[in-house]
């Protein structure tokens, strides 16, 4: 399978790349700084470019079967600006499957329906900026015809993977507080062959 991974130099994205290469997939990454890529593999294609550039996105997406985005907000509008470009390029290339890494803040609130968690007292974060960016991505994907899945981890820990975690469609597993970067990457990667969460958000936590 040919996979495009965006955000490949990030905490989650770098491990998604490792999983895909280990399983023999061909992986293309679009990065601003190729020197940050630590994997050297015959099945890895490194493209220098920017997700905010339409031509770069179009070139990167062409020839792939699945798009995986582990892009983060970087305190900017990167997510909301790049996603329309990604969706358009996928339409033009005839690609249907996209998996993104979001945040637990855009899962449904269970105490303040119909609000999302970041809009309710369930969220412990003082700033909602990142959640608002992820919310725009959710809105764009929901209104597309793509087969999307948004993996929504709660607090991300830098620790060894446990391999056992709970997932729930559209909500955070009850009492979920944290999840490791490695387990989040593993679950996200596994969605390339799992059809259980098509056009859904997935809350993931221990």
UniProtKB/TrEMBL annotation:
Database matches in Gene3D superfamilies: NAD(P)-binding Rossmann-like Domain
Coiled-coil portions: none
Residue ranges constituting the NAD(P)-binding domain according to the UniProt record: 7-194
GO MF entries: oxidoreductase activity, acting on the CH-NH group of donors, NAD or NADP as acceptor
Pfam families per record: NAD_binding_10 (PF13460)
Record protein name field: Putative NADH-flavin reductase
């Amino acid at each position: 399978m040919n996979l495009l991974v965006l955000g490949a130099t990030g905490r989650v994205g770098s491990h998604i790349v490792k999983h895909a290469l280990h399983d023999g997939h061909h992986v293309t990454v679009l990065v601003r700084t190729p020197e940050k890529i630590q994997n050297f593999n015959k099945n890895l294609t490194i493209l220098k470019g920017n997700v905010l550039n339409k031509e770069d996105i179009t070139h990167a997406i062409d020839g792939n079967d699945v798009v995986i985005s582990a892009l983060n907000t970087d305190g900017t509008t990167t997510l909301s600006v790049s996603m329309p470009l990604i969706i358009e390029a996928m339409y033009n290339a005839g690609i249907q499957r996209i998996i993104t890494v979001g945040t637990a803040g855009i899962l449904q609130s269970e105490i303040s329906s119909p609000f999302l968690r970041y809009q309710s007292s369930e969220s412990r974060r003082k700033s909602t900026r990142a959640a608002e960016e992820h919310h725009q991505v959710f809105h764009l994907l929901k209104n597309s015809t793509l087969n999307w899945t948004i993996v929504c981890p709660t607090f991300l820990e830098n620790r060894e993977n446990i391999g056992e975690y709970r997932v729930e469609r559209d909500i955070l597993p009850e009492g979920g507080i944290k999840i490791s970067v490695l387990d989040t990457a593993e679950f996200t990667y596994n969605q390339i062959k799992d059809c259980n969460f098509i056009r859904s958000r997935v809350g993931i936590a221990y």
